[in-house]
Fold this protein.
Amino acid sequence: RNMGNTFQFSIYNECCGQHVHDYPQILVPLRETLRIWIGNLEYEVTSKELCFIPPDMMHRCHFHSSLLVINISRDVLEKKDSGLLTYPLIIPCRDQITRLVEMIQEELQENPDSKSVRYLYDYFYNKLLESCSTASMRYISDHYDEPITVTQLAEMENYNVTYYNDWFKSQTGFPPSLYLRYVRISKAKELLTQTNFNIMEVAAMVGYSSNSTLTRAFHSLTGMTPKEYRECPCFKKTG
């Protein structure tokens, strides 16, 4: 379904193959667990979770069950987001988010062209943003180019390190160190495709101490080196 040119949502009975697209996407498995590779890492998304895939990130899956797919205009992401939602997220569907998913499904089945679906989705998307807008997550997004420790982040949430690690994973689907790596690599991708800074300069600008450190981190998430990513025509920006 196409709501203007801003949101597209559909329910599919399968999702297979590998691809990349220039818009963000939300996947909500409705019954079975979804196994998906995003970048160079594998994730499992249960029927009680949703998966956010940022733009320009290769992903693949072989899923044969009902799946709610929501495609988002890249412009919406850039207008509403200040550095968040530039990396994959696996988020538990709790309380309001769960109910919103159910309401979107019901509205799609009863009246696919209803304007209320558009408003439901807009509210759902704002709730998604709120779920990853804690103090420590925003600090990572704003200070990714600086040295950051887990102890420092835990103090921002008034948690001890052990509890913070568990809490953070429940919010995002992975530990804070991997979350930080995603933010840094996302920024590196922008610099590689939109500027002429060399690899060493890009490394310093996203918080890595050397070219080799950036390359290892970049390859671990994308399966490519920074040089390969910069030279790949599929990631070239236009306009």
About this structure: The chain is about 45% helix and 20% strand. The chain has a mean pLDDT of 81.
